[in-house]
Write a structure and sequence with these properties.
heterodimer, A: 390 residues, mainly beta, two-stranded antiparallel ribbon, 62% strand, B: 150 residues, 2 helices, 13% helix
Chain lengths: 390, 150
């Protein structure tokens, strides 16, 4: 199966490299004191190297990218990435355009985490039109197939988004959005336990720490259809109101309400799901709401300052809360999070420096995810490009 | 050769494509390049937003017409192809632009944008030497975007 992914990947990377217009190299380093954002605070220094190669051919362009991410204190979490794709941009008028792209990508972890290796094929389509000088309609469609080292997590998903925005002379922007999505796990249940190595260690490659005492669990689910599929369908409504203050400052307020229309996570415990996706980030895993406010400003010396506050209440249908010893609590996991972020960034001609601070209070019905913490991270990023300067 | 193709169809396709695309393409017209020596900073209001072809065998570009706040001049700002799908710019918005002043073969003056600043947000379209920050065509604007949360 993996060969099917390698065919387009290798071909597209070869084509893009052969007649490339641009090569870019990006090297970034940063340190953070809770990389998994769980109550077991794990600090690390992370370095990432990415090489991108692009070639434009009229309305088409080829893009490819390869990289490696290294964790100084948790080297077992290191991973490599490869991606290549082709996209097409077509103007429908001076005020509207259509875009479509196809991408093949893969992530390779170190041997102890090979269950998380994955390859993916995805297709994106987008349409944008100016309905008037100050009003924009956008729509987008995404379809993705992912194939993991552990087949439990294989899925096919699709999502559709529609947004409409309007800008007023008072420097106010109002945007409303609707999204619908469907994610189908192709064969989430199996009676074969996953390899022991994939369930141990300080964290998993998907970005979540592990709970002690939950290792060695059989991933079969009583009463479920062995190797059967499971689908989750959801939709959301969102709104953003933004206000420009002078020419160098802006403030925005945003909110999202999301509903699960059908289905629920086919994985019984959050650890299982974590192996494929971090539920906090996977839009299919939760229902509930979030809202936030953000202030951004250009302060002296062209330093950008960003201050944000977000609140959310998310339930994870199908995911059961566990005690710290791994025993089921009989509750569906529900999190309430409050987060404050401050970030400053300075762009120099050769590199970019940033420093960020976050305070997070995550209340959860699952004690492992009931925590609060302060995080500081800082980093530097170099971007080096070769090729045509336009 | 036949053995190679049969045993390694993936590699064969890749090699063939590389050979074909390594052939230099004929330049149909001279394209202006970003010139760091003619860099300017412009502050003004967006008067017009267009998505139009600029160069042969290139995807159409997002083009802004900006009226300068102080001098009252109207500048044509060339941003890039993918940026049409990037930030939602509107007529009437105040912008600050860092870019290179260029004259085309007909002597028309325009500006190739390197940075756009809108409502506290900085969009880095090209790096300090003018290398584009976009990837691919429309939906993969990888140029760094900072600031405003919308």
């Amino acid at each position: 199966m993996k060969r099917l992914f390698l065919v387009p990947l290798v071909t597209l990377m070869g084509i893009a490299s052969a007649g490339a217009d641009d090569f870019s190299l990006s090297l970034s380093h940063f340190a953070a004191d809770n990389i998994f954002q769980t109550r077991e605070q794990t600090s690390d220094r992370i370095s990432a190297l990415t090489l991108s190669v692009d070639k434009a051919m009229s309305k088409f362009s080829l893009f490819s990218e390869g990289g490696y991410t290294y964790f100084a204190r948790n080297p077992g979490l290191g991973f490599g990435t490869l991606a290549a794709g082709l996209d097409f941009l077509h103007p429908l008028s001076k005020k509207s355009a259509f875009y479509v792209s196809g991408t093949a990508d893969a992530i390779f972890f170190r041997p102890e985490s090979r269950d998380f290796n994955r390859a993916a094929l995805s297709m994106n389509a987008a349409f944008k039109a100016y309905l008037g000088p100050s009003s924009i309609l956008r729509s987008g469609y995404t379809m993705e197939y992912r194939n993991y080292g552990s087949r439990n997590f294989d899925f096919l998903s699709q999502a559709f988004q529609l947004t409409l925005d309007r800008y007023f002379e008072t420097k106010t922007s109002v945007k409303a959005g609707f999204a619908w999505g469907y994610k189908y796990f192709l064969h989430p249940f199996t009676t074969t336990p996953l390899s022991e190595t994939s369930q141990s260690g300080g964290g998993d490659p998907a970005g979540a720490g592990w709970r002690h005492g939950a290792d060695g669990r059989d991933y079969s689910r009583p009463g479920s259809t062995e190797n059967g599929g499971a689908g989750i369908q959801n939709c959301s409504l969102s709104a953003v109101v933004a206000q420009g203050i002078g020419s160098r400052m802006g403030i925005s307020f945003s909110g999202t309400r999301q509903w699960t229309l059908s289905g629920k996570s086919p994985f019984l415990y959050v650890e299982e799901y974590y192996m494929a996706e971090n539920p906090t980030y996977d839009s299919f895993s939760w229902e509930g709401w979030n809202w936030g406010a953000m202030l951004t400003a250009e302060v002296p010396w062209d330093i950008e300052l960003k201050i944000g506050y977000t609140m959310s209440r998310k339930a994870f249908p199908g995911i059961e809360s566990l005690g710290l010893d791994g025993s089921p609590l009989g509750l569906t996991r529900e999190d309430r999070r409050r987060q404050t972020d401050v970030r400053v960034e300075k762009d120099f001609s050769k590199f970019t420096l940033f420093l960020s601070y976050s305070f997070i209070r995550n209340g959860s019905s699952d004690p492992f995810f009931d925590w609060k913490g302060r995080f500081v991270s800082g980093g530097i990023q170099w971007n080096i490009s070769f090729g045509k300067t336009r | 050769m036949e053995y190679f193709v049969r045993k390694n169809p993936v590699a064969a396709v890749a090699v063939a494509a590389m050979i074909l695309l390594s052939i230099p393409l004929q330049a149909f017209q001279a394209e202006p390049f970003y010139n760091v020596d003619t860099e300017v900073r412009i502050s003004g209001t967006v008067e017009e937003i267009r998505f139009e072809p600029r160069y042969k065998d290139r995807a159409p570009f997002l083009v802004l017409v900006v009226k300068e706040a102080e001098a009252g001049l109207r500048d044509t700002i060339e941003v890039g192809p993918s940026w049409f799908f990037g930030p939602d710019l509107h007529q009437g918005e105040h912008v600050e632009i860092v870019g290179s002043v260029i004259r085309n073969e007909e002597g028309m003056r325009f500006v190739i944008a390197r940075e756009l600043r809108i409502g506290g947000e900085t969009l880095i379209v090209r790096d300090s030497r003018g290398f584009p920050g976009w990837r691919g065509g429309g939906g993969r604007t990888s140029g760094r975007r900072r600031g405003r949360g919308f």
